TrEMBL record, chain A:
This is Uncharacterized protein. Signal peptide: none annotated. Belongs to the eukaryotic/archaeal RNase P protein component 4 family. One of its GO terms (molecular function) is metal ion binding. InterPro entries: Rpr2/Snm1/Rpp21. GO terms for cellular component: endoribonuclease complex; ribonucleoprotein complex. Pfam families: Rpr2. Gene3D superfamilies: 6.20.50.20. PANTHER family: RIBONUCLEASE P PROTEIN SUBUNIT P21, RIBONUCLEASE P SUBUNIT P21.
From TrEMBL, chain B:
GO terms for biological process: tRNA processing. Component of ribonuclease P, a ribonucleoprotein complex that generates mature tRNA molecules by cleaving their 5'-ends. InterPro entries: RNase_P/MRP_Rpp29-subunit, RNase_P/MRP_Rpp29_sf, Rof/RNase_P-like, Rpp29/RNP1. It comes from Pagothenia borchgrevinki. Its main location: nucleus. It is found in: Nucleus, Nucleolus. Keywords: Nucleus, Phosphoprotein, tRNA processing. Transmembrane segments: none annotated. Component of nuclear RNase P and RNase MRP ribonucleoproteins. RNase P consists of a catalytic RNA moiety and 10 different protein chains; POP1, POP4, POP5, POP7, RPP14, RPP21, RPP25, RPP30, RPP38 and RPP40. Within the RNase P complex, POP1, POP7 and RPP25 form the 'finger' subcomplex, POP5, RPP14, RPP40 and homodimeric RPP30 form the 'palm' subcomplex, and RPP21, POP4 and RPP38 form the 'wrist' subcomplex. All subunits of the RNase P complex interact with the catalytic RNA. Several subunits of RNase P are also part of the RNase MRP complex. Signal peptide: none annotated. The keyword Glycoprotein does not apply. This is Ribonuclease P protein subunit p29.
Length: 106, 219
């Protein structure tokens, strides 16, 4: 319990930053820079305090330029098939071109 | 001709000098050697190869060109500067665009300080605020060594190591150095002062740092 409480502030802060990035982008979809700045700060906090981020958060951040990936706004989403069974979702960052491939888990 | 050279026996006098002995059946030796060292597929027709003398020993399959590594490389500082990753475009510097951010921040701080009633312990709130995030807060410069900064009010948009970037009600982006100025933050009637000189770190570093309880403040 004590361990959980120890980093509660940091988790709250990261949560706020993540929400702030969403908020900024929803206000003005072109303000990628500020959203990126918030996500960058969030990432740095996580790195400094060695905190694990949830995959659902991690998958919406670009690894290269730290921008928030929202399909249709800052990223493109495509479905790709490797063979008849396995399919992938390819998220491509619109500002730097980095793409990430996620396995579709049914 | 070359085959003959390979199979030539070492001269008698040299044989004595080196202390070696020539193989009595050089042909068999060569065959065995080839059989062992050639790839499996060509082994069967060693004889055929030898008679035709179309033997290529140093053959290797042309390498497939390596797959490009998909691992993201990250950007270095120069690339970041060139791309202007964190610089706000002038057309996005509008005060009303940041009001929802401020609302979000208000919620966050109230949540952080678990309610934030007027009765709550100021020391406790201060401790929480030290590690809180200030993006989105409305601040006013209360005191500063440079008098022209005093009285500036706005929403903090970005926090850097030495400066705050503030957007004012007049849609102007102002850069205010942290050093030698005091900011005041107001949440639900609770006013807190921030000593900028104590805050001279990057936004992300503050979470990890431990603060001294009471430091000297000279201003
Ligand atoms: Zn990117």
């Amino acid at each position: 319990m004590a361990i959980q409480l120890k980093d509660k502030d940091a988790y709250q802060r990261m949560n706020y930053l993540y929400q702030a990035a969403h908020c900024v982008l929803s206000q003005n979809p072109e303000n990628v820079e500020l959203a990126r700045f918030y996500c960058f700060t969030q990432k740095t906090i996580a790195r400094r305090l060695v905190l694990r981020q949830d995959p659902s958060v991690k998958r919406t951040l670009c690894k290269k330029c730290c921008s928030l990936l929202i399909p249709g706004v800052t990223a493109t989403t495509r479905q790709r098939r490797k063979n008849s069974k396995t399919r992938f979702t390819v998220l491509r960052c619109l500002s730097c071109g980095q793409s990430k491939t996620l396995l579709n888990d049914p | 001709m070359e085959e003959a050279l390979v199979r030539a026996t070492i001269p008698q006098d040299l044989e004595k000098l080196l202390g070696v002995e020539s193989r009595p059946h050089p042909k068999a030796f060569t065959d065995a050697f080839l059989k062992n060292s050639l790839p499996q597929t060509t082994r069967c027709d060693v004889n055929n190869l030898l008679t035709h003398k179309a033997l290529i020993l140093g053959y290797s399959r042309p390498k497939k060109d390596k797959r490009k590594s998909k691992k993201p490389k990250g950007l270095n500082a120069r690339q970041k500067r060139a791309m202007k990753v964190f610089q706000l475009k002038p057309e996005h510097q509008r005060y009303e665009l940041f009001l929802p951010l401020h609302d979000l921040w208000r919620q966050y701080v109230i949540d952080l300080c678990s309610g934030l009633k007027p009765t709550s312990n100021p020391q406790f709130v201060q401790q929480k605020l030290l590690k809180a995030d200030f993006h989105g807060a409305i601040v006013t410069v209360v005191r500063s060594k440079c008098p022209s900064y005093v009285g500036t009010t706005g929403i903090i948009v970005q926090e850097f190591k030495h400066v705050f970037k503030i957007i004012t009600r007049e849609d102007k982006l102002k850069v205010i150095p942290k050093r030698n100025s005091v900011f005041s933050v107001e949440i639900n009637g609770f006013v807190s002062h921030i000593y900028g000189s104590k805050f001279e770190q990057r936004a992300s570093e503050r979470s990890a740092k431990k603060f001294k309880v009471r430091g000297t403040i000279d201003l």
